[in-house]
Amino acid sequence: MAKAATIIEATYRCDYAYHAQMEPLNAIASVSPAGDAVELWCGTQSQSLAVEATAKVLGIPRDKVKLNYFLMGGGFGRRGHRDEEFIVDAVLMAKEAGKPVKVLWTREDDVRNGRFRPITAHFVRAGLDAAGKPVAWHHRVAGDRVTPFMDPVRHQSAGGKDAILMRGVELKSYDIPHQLSEQLYRDTGVRTSPLRGIGYTANKFVTEAFLDEIAQKRGIDPVQMRLDLLKDSPRGRKIVERVAEMASWGRKRDGRGLGFAFIDYSNTLTAGIAEVSVDRRTGVIKVHEFWCALDCGLQVHPDNVLAQTEGSIVYGLGMALSETISIKDGAVRESNFYDYRVPRMNEVPDMHIELIATDNHPTGVGQMATPLVAPAIANAVAELTGARLRETPMSPDRVRKALG
Q1: What's residue 160's pLDDT?
Q2: What does the mean pLDDT of the chain come to?
Q3: How far is CA 289 from CA 181, 224, 236, 316, 380, in A?
Q4: CA–CA separation, 314 vs 306, rounded Å?
Q5: How far is CA 62 from CA 38, 66, 80, 82, 91, in A?
Q6: Do the Cβ atoms of 239 and 271 come closer than 8 Å?
Q7: C-alpha angle 221/204/278, rounded to 5°?
């Protein structure tokens, strides 16, 4: 960084977010009269942890816990904590009642006792050489750690490092030789959790939007800048070129802007373009079209890959534009879907998704497109209005403020 010809820096912020799974937390438990065995019926992301937490609270061997596993109406990280408290609720009440008990959290319970994606603040700076190429990159993240609360055993086995908060700060695939990422702990006591896309949803919003800022300051096309940075990644270049073709990148739209983002998520490569308009009076952003190209290696079930990617984009849309948890006097203010606003059907853009077939190993698709959405939207708004949005969600009041 000290040798850079030019240094550019910025700060970004991302709010708390709730999982908003369609099915509230629930479980059924039946404890034997002697309390030495239990049968469970539930959906969970961590079957082993569900058995372990139940055995621990009853003081019985794990083989005395029978789990009948059901499909989930959404998990997204919320049903995978080591304490599995919604299952333990049912177990303790069934033991006390002496008969099977079903626990079903209300939506209000679910929201107000949620375990949230951490609120984060980001300082980023890039050092450019004399030709304008990024040669040094510094990303500092301040936020609550996740694994000490979500899974203390996992946190300890990782040597006290919290990878979930920091996932996505690394700029893999890009040719930026010198990179430094730093984590500043802010252990506030707020219940934290992995959330679909984990650290990528915040960290890639920051890195991909900041790269656009650099391209803007250099006066070069942001897609061309990514292609230059992907000179050593033929797979990356291919999906960037393909999504640009799909969206007719470079063709001006009347009253609309295009924004681009690229992500290497655990060796699944994705590129996305959003087409947006902005109501300058209300500050409402409307996403009309979203194009996505994805290379996940061997596609074991292509139809499911498409479905997961569509769901990921819708999830990312809510995180980008409307979903936020606020806390006042130690209590969560939101309570249901009328004040924690997920995307409505008429707000979902037309989605155009293309899977790039390769013979690489399968690398995952469950949440890889979610982090694309926020930076693509922010970059589109900047291209259309000249205003740079550095906070998620990009709510109407924040848009109006940015537009002046």
Answers
A1: 87
A2: 96
A3: 33, 21, 22, 14, 11
A4: 13
A5: 10, 9, 18, 15, 14
A6: yes
A7: 60
